[in-house]
Amino acid sequence: MKFLYINLDMAFLFITGVLQMEFFNLSWSYFRVIEYLHIFGSILLIVLFIFPFLYSHIIGTMVKHKAKSKSGMLFGIVFMLLIVSGVYLFLVGNRGGDSLGNLSHIVHLYGSFVLLFLLGLHLKKFFTPSTAVKIASLLIVFLPLTSYSDAVKLTNVEYEEGVSRYHNIEWTNSTTCKACHPKIFKQWANSNHRHLADSNPYYMVLENLAGMDRGEKFRTWCMGCHNPSAVSMKQEKTTHFMRDNIMPDPLFVEDSQNLVDEYKAHPNRLEQGVSCIACHRITDASPKGNSSYTLKLQERKKYLYEDAHSDTKVWINQKLINANPKTHKEEYMKPLYKKSEYCASCHNEFLPHTGKMVVSTYNQWRDSKYNNPKNPKEHKDCIDCHMNYLEDGKYVGQSGLSTLGGKVKKSIKTHYFTGANHFLVGLKSKEHESQSLQLLKSSAKLDSAIKENKLLVGVTNVGAGHKLPTGASDFREMWLDITVRDRDGKVIFSSGKLDESGNIEKNSIVYNKVFGDKEGNPVGLLFWRYEKLLKDTRIDAGKRVQELFPLPSNAKYPLKAEIKLNFRIYPQWVTDVVKVSYPQLPNPPVVTIAKEERVFD
Amino acid sequence: MLRLILLGITIIVIWISSVPYLIPKKVKHSFSDAELREVALSKGMKSIPKKYDAFLKLLDSPQNPITKEKVALGKELFFDSNLSKDNRVSCASCHMLSKNPHNKNQFLDDITNPQSKTDCMVCHIKDQSGSDRLATAIGVDGRSDPYHRNTLTILNSALAKYQMWDASVKKSLKSVAIMIHDADKMGLIAKEAERKIAVKPYYKEQFQKIFPDGVTFKNITLAIDAYQKTLLTRSDFDRFLDGNNSAISDTAKRGLRNFIELGCKGCHSGRTVGGETVQHFPTRNYNYIIDVTSVFSTEYVGRDVAAFNFNFKEYHRFPFENVGGFLGKKEEQRFRVPMLRNVTKTSPYFHNGAVFDLREAVYIMGKYQLSMELTEIQIDEITAFLKSLEGEVVEYEELK
Hints:
The complex is a heterodimer. Chain A is α+β, with helices and mostly antiparallel strands.
């Protein structure tokens, strides 16, 4: 009878282990439970039954009766190997960082067949009656599982894809990703993608304005890209958190500490904005724009306890993922994510009521020379610049680990999401600010000449794969700041200075687009009123524009010209409006993208 | 022995997997819109009057007859920060409303004229919620409530049978004086209030026109009360009760059904959907049940200990942090049932404003008052119904 028990135990270990093989292609709801049962069932069975049995068995046969059994010896050795590799897989995992993980995996997988064979050899004389044993063990392994999967299905009914909405519990909080991907989390936590919604003062004011001007429902238009989780929850507006009577100040919080704290206190509260899984659970995206992506949160292969919040369960879950990370990677990383079309789903925006494009960054890239799939050397996708790492103004890539214990990568796809907005990220992290400034400074070049008493200034878009500036570019300012001094040092020409209120003085050369409403008046903040394009001086990718500045005819040569190409992320008048609601907001600084000082004889 | 175990396991497994098929499925009775309305009306839910006559019938009293002039005077006083010790707090500072609640461009006006208001108010004034959207009110000299009580909305409050969180006041008129006198709110004694109001010629003239005895503190409260009685909101739900089937969505209708069937309406009753009774909260104290320390020593009975994690976590008397330590009427954890009209606009929730999310609040109410773990779908539906209770202040032609 004792032998029967032990055989049952072994059958359990073997079957639960083998079922995890790719060959069986088990449905996920079974797989996740079997993985758990295999690990914890093995620990229990081995410690409580198999070890005591082996001990008494070995003492009884090899020590007392001096019996020698080759198959028994071999079995013992292979069994130890399996235990060691299993423990390694469980505690350290197979994350790709060390070859030992892969070795353990191979030993554990193929070793188990060897073990079974040796067991059969060892039990040759008892083998015949064990058919009944096998059937019984199959029953034990399979039947409880059917009932379990039924229970899972019951709760899954409301979350079948094709449903009209999601719930907060499906929106796995980004904090949960932090444990294994600390570096990426930190990069994202200070990036603009993290601070697109409730923690972005400019956005909050604009969304409120949109709701006021076009009705509360119109907020959804903004939220589609800025706040996907709230949209999927059918929330009608973006809300900010409060800590008692105080609005926590997300402007200056580093590494999203407020999100981490909030998660600790209220794990089920919805995380607003673009979270990890908002991007990493997109299954399809089209370049149409206005949040044209498909999310799939519910039918997701989760490891056991992936939604748990208690420390023990989270620990177990992490071990389960590490032991067999393939599914995890497949679930959250798709080839689509490296394509520019994927980014286009939000970086193309049009007005829903008129169909007019307001932001067409993707289209600009599509028509540029950087979109050249036939020539892979010249082809550059969005992520080649915006998820790269800059050092001294050059794309060098960041080497290191994206996952703790994982493979050392030559060039991580960094999650700084480096863009023009150096200001809001700079309030949180100097590293992000420096990346952003380097990107800006690599984007344009200046050249100048004097002909027939006219100053010629050329600006070339050398770095950006889209227009310069792009995005909501009536809110981006790029302009020429020019000072010309004569022989005596007297200023004879000046343009593009800031006036007392901080706005750029009139008649300066500003590269932007200006929207007009039906009557042809500038729309100001209410850019959804756009009907007519009043001005578009943005510089296409790779193109050069030239400006002419007439100088006074009596200028005394030699002339000393100081030409700066300046950039400011938000015009002063926009910041002024936002500051009414957010008095703690500082003014965005002016960045000099390119500078030229020349003496003309 | 082994056979017995195997047999046992097999039987249990078969039993568990077949239970869902064995239990007969209850056929849910589905209500038509008319039936649902009938049920709602029979349970005492009523709409806010659209007509002025009906409004007068409901709220007018011979002691303080509502007249157009009195309401206009009350409105002036409501927005006047002279009614406070430091001349900074008016009734409208906490019961946030704008003078013209129908100005759709209020927000744009405010942000482009920064001198008028700054900070939270700029965005939140357009909620027209009649509350301050803070966890607890901030009164004169920046003082906050010692019990950390959340500001109740003034909208529809005149219809409620009880006022204040501890139901200490019944008539809306009485609450006016209490708020003006409260040292942490407006902090003004009666005489001082009279003096401050009487110096203004406009007030003096109006008071003498309306009241025979001119500016007195009692008349100030009477005028403010007349105004606050006019702050009634009509919502989509009212339109549904009045016979418009398409006024609320299907989800909201299912929410209404849940609201009635699950028992929410037992306390959140009447025209105001709450405010009519005083109830214990929480009625189910799960924390107490698993507090095992009392078994070993009587010293620990009723102390603040573990919640859900046996004795590892701090225990609160409420399913949220007990900020302020307010325990309601007679310190028995009995509270006036809050009104649910405009509840979507008046976060944070509960007496100390500890819960910010309406869905979370609905979940807590289900679990701790009704012993039900509401499903996400049920919470969706109930929230949709609560959303349909959101309304705008009714403008009676006769008061314009």
